[in-house]
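SAMPLE LOG
Freezer: B-3
Tube label: C17
Construct: single chain, 246 aa
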Amino acid sequence: MKAIILAAGKGKRLHSEQFTAPKVLREANGRPLLRYVVENLDFIPEKKDIVIVVGYRKEMVTDAFQEGYTFAVQDEQLGTGHAVNCAREALADYDGPVLVCYGDMPLFKKETYQNLVKLHAEEGNDCTILTGISNRGLAYGRIIRDESGHFTGVVEDRDCTPEQKKINELNVGIYVFDSKKLFSCLGELKNSNAQGEYYLTDVPAIMMGKGWQIGTYTTRDDTEILGVNTPEELALCEEILKSSDR
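STRUCTURE (predicted):
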């Protein structure tokens, strides 16, 4: 088992420039956001099997996490798909499951990651998507299912119809992929969107188009799925960390 943690962001909306630190080194309850993530991945026995994708002020992250992790560099911020593709070389010789997660989402429990990985293996999926049930009005993509409840796709929040906006099953952005198939699909991503970026969220659709197997695992604890993008979200995250055993 290997993992890719996306940790290259600047944290512009978090005003991280004022702190001269990348977003993942901002602290909640006295510890960097990224520290919570790597500790919850400690079911992966070898730290070298965790690839941390760094970018903005990358030396600060590599200096703070010198315990044997593998690092990959994203020099330009060209989207989540591009960020994952920056780990291609680090995983070139690997053929197996890879968990993709985020360095600014510190509230996920270890058990949630483990259950996602377990389901991926049990079902023999090529991609397993972590979804979350929430009525918080989060601006996440919505999970679309057919009449039988089978996953058919993701619609980004800004593209949702009023009816789709009511869907409370959200795409969290965390996945387990077959590594070789993931990197083959990343080469097919297009950046023909308003941001001109390559989105990881487009990969499951590419995989479905090839007839590969997609599954989902759902968490119903919607505090887990909260990310940190603004000072208000950082404060909420800290409040949850202080009041829980995470």
